Amino acid sequence: MQNKSTNTAFIPKMYCNIFGHDYYVTKKVTRHVKEYTCSHCKKQLTTSSNGNLVELTPKFKEINAILERIHQSRMNRLKEKTFASSIC
Ligand SMILES: [Zn+2]
Questions:
Q1: Rounded to the nearest whole angstrom, what is the distance from the C-alpha of residue 16 to the centroid of ligand 1?
Q2: pLDDT at 82
């Protein structure tokens, strides 16, 4: 008796083709831009500048990293501002 394990191997990409991708948020870049990963095939998406979901290419990863830095420094400045005004 032979156990052909190759036949029972689950093909995530095929699952996604039939049922669609199952994305979950992997990273919040800004309030509007997020990065998503499909739990089945690990395909990655991100929110583009016009609000559509696009494939997360190395170029978009770069853009998101810059966006994240700008967003965080803005948040830090906002925190400092409210902190300063609460003292005065
Ligand atoms: Zn998928």
A1: 5
A2: 75
